[in-house]
Design a protein that fits this description.
Length: 152
């Protein structure tokens, strides 16, 4: 799937209610802590994020929560896709394995199920499921750039 196809696919995501976005915003701290804990407990953490990248991973989770607040508040498919591609490129060039995003996104889904009010969960999980469904597409689209940068 190319970038335009990803944007078209993302445009099919239903927009969340203001109440759902506010519920997510209010719980970002607790959810970020839970995602950090899930990843830190993963025995394969060094394979997922590379050596000595714990602080970088935690920073990514904080940034992810803030980014999702903005996406839920004011959805734009182009921003969603372009930002994810940028994150994949940058973090992969720093040693993060594409499998990290699968683990991370499953962690966010678990955190949503733990912290978000039940009536708002599906609206948010739809976004995480979409990202999960397209991890391979984001990986393929950033493969060439990551390989070129690793040669430098």
């Amino acid at each position: 799937m190319n970038k335009l196809e990803l944007q078209n696919s993302a445009n099919l995501l239903p927009r969340v209610s203001e109440e759902t976005a506010n519920n997510y915003r209010a719980k970002t701290g607790a959810m970020t802590e839970q995602v950090n804990q899930i990843l830190l407990e993963n025995e394969a953490i060094d394979c997922l994020i590379g050596n000595e990248n714990i602080d970088l991973m935690k920073n990514n989770h904080e940034n992810h929560a803030s980014f999702m607040v903005s996406i839920l508040d004011n959805f734009k498919a182009e921003i969603l896709v372009n930002t994810i591609l940028w994150v994949f490129k940058v973090y992969r060039s720093r040693g993060f394995n594409p499998a990290y995003w699968q683990e991370q996104l499953h962690g966010w889904i678990a955190a949503v199920k733990t912290h978000i009010d039940t009536q708002h969960q599906k609206e948010i999980i739809d976004y995480y499921q979409w990202m999960l469904d397209h991890v391979n597409d984001f990986t393929e689209l950033t493969d060439i750039e990551v390989k070129e940068e690793s040669k430098s």
